[in-house]
Amino acid sequence: MTAEYKVHGAVAVITLNNPPVNGLGLSTRRAVIEGLNQANADAAVQAIVITGAGKAFSGGADIKEFGKESALQEPNLHTVIAQVEQSSKPVVAAIHSVCMGGGLELALGCHYRMAAPGTLVALPEVKLGLLPGAGGTQRLPRAIGVEPALNMIVSGESIQSDMLVQIPGQKLFDKLSVSAQTLAAEALIFAQEVGERHVAGNEALPLVRDLKCKHPKGDAYFGFVRNMVKGMSKNYPAPLKCVDAVEAATKRKFQDGLDFERELFVNLMWTPESRALRHLFMAERATTKIADIPADTPVRNIQKVGVIGAGTMGGGISMNFLNAGIPVTILETKPEALERGVATIKKNYEAQVKKGKLKEDKYAQRMALLSTTLSYDDLKDCDLIIEAVFEELGVKEIVFKQLDAVAKLGAILASNTSTLDVDKIAAFTSRPQDVVGMHFFSPANVMKLLEVVRGKATGKDVMATVMQIAKKIKKTAVVSGVCDGFIGNRMIEQYSRQAGFLLDEGATPQQVDKAAEKFGFAMGPFRMGDLAGNDIGWAIRKRRVVEKPGMKYSASADRLCELGRFGQKTGKGWYDYQAGKRDAIPSQEVLDMIDAHRKAIGITPRKISDEEIVQRLVFSLVNEGAHILEDGIASKSGDIDMVYLTGYGFPIYRGGPMHYASELGLINVVQAMHRFAQNPHDDAKFWQPAPLLARLAAEGQRFA
Question: What is the DSSP string of 519-579?
Fold first, then answer.
């Protein structure tokens, strides 16, 4: 059963029991209706309590029903709430832990509400590109006032019950329990009291829908809010629709407002932005699931972490673990390198303190967890050791052979490599089952993405442990197989190649970047290159000459590096930069270099549309992503989307490259690729659609 029914004296208790968050799926909704009917038919029952088992009252809709017919089947949530409101006996919601979305809407339909202190309350639908669709926009303003309700609905953020009860005149919670532990007992007593009162007085039961809902400044207030929300929600239609719905609560009869809310909800369900956000929601949760590794796989205990290298990456990686309360020992070869690394960590924390994002005592606690060393021997008691040294296989070999000699049995040995073969690195040790790739993205203490690279010998318990620790340090972990560049960098190489060809054919760095950023990328390819360092790509291209001599590149990026223009770190790259600033200033030297390069290779520049720029950049990601799926490097297209949404600045409201391509229609993507293959200055071989992409397009299918 997904809802349990028990009677305690004169009180019937309906307990939602649909782990992990008591989602209001079809079977749960049916069970609630059955419980209500049973309680109302029992003459011995005077009141009803609805509560939740485990660690939630209810988190709202059951995510397993997203996109399925069962989500709309009767009894839907509107029907359940109507049955609660129409109950002939008082219904008390006993709320604890988490009360969100449809869970809060259900509670708002109850006649009374008691909450445990510290309960997190929210209507987070806006984060899925939606608005509350079961009366939340109509009832919450009546319960706590228009302004607090609108803030909650538009932001989607949770607020603790302790704060909500302090709102003057609020009718959301009738009382708080003494504690979460005493909630059940207190709710029974409260329900019995209101039940006896109702029987004695036979008065009408209180309904939130009957409360008045007005704002003293009316149109002026909503006009002001619309301007604020519009400026903050570019590319996202849901926040403004939330304002419309709440305004309707102040101007329309309750049922009319409810109908209007439903109309807005249904329309938002079909927007590409909501589909993208719902895809992101599901894909993020799916990244933690590895097909051949059971959820109950034993994990190793990570009590102490070692980090080799105190540079930008090593310091950032260390901060993740310090933030999570895990002791870290940083190893360097020279004292001055250690001093610089620790100074940078301190500087980063002090900046957070100055901005009010970190308290002084927390800063002190984190620094107390940090130790430094110049000797590998001091890493012998570490449970996880991550190297963040120079990206060269010979350097990695030296490090891992030394780690193999000193690390304790059972320690996980991880490489932060961004492109190198993890299987070769594992072979430098006598324990390849303990070796894994943990590719952090720069700045490592900020970026959410962590590529977890699974070698052919990597133990299942190692994978389970790393996925667990990734969650603890608040990273989105995506599993990749072993190949050059893994998922993200393998795809970005094709994206960068297209950016170079576009320059050869007539575009400027500014035009390409502006087109990409207008599409929604956080940063265009040339600004991104300047930030990362153009010399990194130069080193990869030099390696490609040996490994893949037939691979075609624009030589403009090499010419740039030959001029010493490595990016922001040198004050000049594809753009010029002023000291202490990151503003990208167009460079005449670069434009002259590109023009000279075009003449040298005999290309007459042509006018290139922004649409062509975006299609060539994005579809190059899609085609390489399809190859990655075929090769088994990524297990699902959603993993690829998560890599690009959390690590490469792909616009969230477009759902990632694979989802975006599916939204466009894969047949349209394939047809565009055939056109690009006819371009004599492009790489015709690359634009042959990956077999998986071609098959899905021919069948009218999407990436899963």
Answer: HT-SS-HHHHHHHH-HHHHHHHHHHHHHH-TT----THHHHHHHTT--BGGGTBSSEE--T
Give the residue among 672, 648, 673, 669 at the shortest CA–CA distance from 660. Answer: 669
d(CA 207, CA 211): 7
Q: Over the stretch 419-471, which tens digit does the pLDDT of each residue have?
A: 899 999 999 999 999 999 999 998 899 999 999 999 999 999 999 999 999 99
Sheet holding 112-115, edge to edge: 3-8, 11-16, 47-52, 91-95, 112-115, 175-176
Q: Write out pLDDT tens, residues 464-496.
A: 999 999 999 999 999 999 999 999 999 999 999
CA dihedral sign, ordered 77, 281, 665, 512? positive
Give the CA-trace dihedral at 623, 293, 56, 79, to 10 degrees.
60
Q: Where are the alpha helices (DSSP H) in 202-306?
A: 218-232, 238-251, 254-269, 272-286
In whole angstroms, how far apart are CA 367 and each of 17, 213, 215, 347, 363? 43, 51, 49, 12, 6
Q: Which amino acid is at 570?
A: T
CA-only gyration radius of the chain, Å: 29
Distance CA 244, CA 259 (A): 13
Beta bridge partners, 160, equal 120
Cα angle 414, 418, 423; round to 5: 55
Single-letter residue type at 140: L
Contact present, 111 and 135 (Cβ < 8 Å): no
User: Which 3 state secondary structure label does DSSP give 49?
Assistant: strand
Q: Could you give phi then psi for residue 680, rounded to 5 degrees?
A: -65, -20
Bridge partners of 328, per DSSP, are 305, 370
Prior bond of 586 cis (ω within 30°):
no
Catalytic residues: 105, 125
d(CA 362, CA 184): 36
Long-range contacts of 182-188 (CB under 8 A, 24+ apart): 183/51, 183/94, 183/96, 183/114, 183/115, 183/116, 184/51, 184/94, 186/114, 187/49, 187/51, 187/92, 187/94, 187/114, 188/8, 188/9, 188/11, 188/13, 188/49
pLDDT digits (tens, 9 = 90+) for 186-232: 999 999 999 999 888 777 899 999 999 999 998 999 999 999 999 88
The predicted-structure confidence for 357-413, as pLDDT tens digits, reads as follows 999 999 999 999 999 999 999 999 999 999 999 888 999 999 999 999 999 999 999
Which three-class secondary structure state does DSSP give residue 350?
A: helix
What is d(CA 137, CA 25) in angstroms, rounded to the nearest whole number? 21
Task: Report the b/e string of 234-246 with b at 16+ CB within 10 A.
Answer: eebbbbbbbbebb
